[in-house]
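User: Just a sanity check before I run the rest of the batch. Below are the structure tokens for the first item. I only need the designed sequence back.
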């Protein structure tokens, strides 16, 4: 694992800011799975991270609701491998990829106009709908 985690040009996370917990993996594996704590969970404290500015913190908190606990820590787990070290790398790469996606600036929307055809189509649809409503009314005789 690298010394620092480069997320964006202006955000670098120190490995000391990450917290790791290890446990036994679930699933098949025979005797090995009962002896080795190879499952890795990596935590990153978003609420108290000094390297995040307020805008970054809010974007991460908003976009990561399913990965953040009540304590404000971002959590990613890995139990893909039998190796604790590989699982550690997988979990950290998940965290880095998630942060990069969340902090990537969005595309600016360019306003467009509705085409002539789409306007006509909408009006025809409205007319059909109105006729259908008229046909549903009770029949009254004017005689």
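Assistant: Here's the designed sequence for the first item:
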């Amino acid at each position: 694992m690298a010394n620092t985690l480069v997320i964006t040009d202006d955000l670098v996370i120190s490995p000391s800011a990450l917290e790791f917990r290890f446990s036994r993996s679930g699933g098949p594996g025979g005797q090995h799975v009962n002896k080795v704590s190879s499952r890795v969970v990596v935590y990153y404290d978003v609420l108290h991270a000094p390297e995040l500015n307020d805008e970054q913190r809010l974007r991460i908190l908003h976009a990561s609701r399913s990965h953040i606990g009540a304590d404000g820590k971002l959590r990613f787990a890995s139990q893909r491998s039998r190796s604790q070290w590989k699982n550690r790398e997988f979990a950290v790469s998940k965290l880095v990829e998630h942060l990069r996606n969340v902090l990537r600036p969005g595309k600016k929307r360019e306003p467009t106009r509705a085409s002539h055809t789409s306007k006509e189509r909408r009006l025809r649809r409205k007319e059909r709908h109105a006729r259908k409503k008229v046909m549903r009314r009770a029949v009254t005789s004017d005689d």
